[in-house]
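Question (not urgent): is this output format expected?
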Amino acid sequence: MGELTGRTALVTGAAGDIGRAACRAFIEAGAKVIAVGRSGPEKASALLDGLSADQIEYVTADVTDRAAVDAFIDGPNRLDIVIGNAGIVEPMPYVDVTAESWERQIDINLTGNFHVTQAAVRRFLRDGTKGCIVLNGSWVGERPWPEIAPYSVTKAALQMLVRSIALEHAKDGIRCNLVAPGIVNAGLARAEAERNPEYAARAAMAVPLGTLQEPEDVAAVMVFLCTPSAASVTGSTYLVDGGSSLGNC
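Got this back:
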């Protein structure tokens, strides 16, 4: 509590389950949050409810729009922390993946994070800030899961993006890490588990610890990686997957 007092954290994909949990976790740690989402603030009521303007500012923007990204990164607030959380998944068998779906997932999950991280690094360098970047990856960046090939490819690529940024900018005091959740009890996974008992059973079998991760579990690791306790951590991938990446025989 209070480890990030006086800092400002920017979170993309803020209106989703993990984004919302991340915003609240950073506020609890003392930071002011700039929440970025594609939906307008009226659709982000669950995020903003009970929070004051001193705690959080909501910005409507799309991470695939470089001009919009530059605008919110270079806004009037100070900037210490950037959480690249915006992403989508469009499950389907590999043979059914359309060029449009492939490009959409690459554009948002990978290119969107390129825009956000490059703009953030440029600002950190300009301001002389020893900033911290955390991207939201996935356990499927290393271990494939059926029918989400484009998504898995983007998450694998994010690992190399993080390592590249970390290597090039360690000398500037800029740290960059990846959090890799497993099957989170949120969004599409939760909806599919509720709708499809077969998927729910398969997902449960894939998690050695026996339970899906909660968005708050992922958010807690994001916060940790931005605190002084993680001052020597950069270029790393932190799995928050209940052991899914180990395989469950």
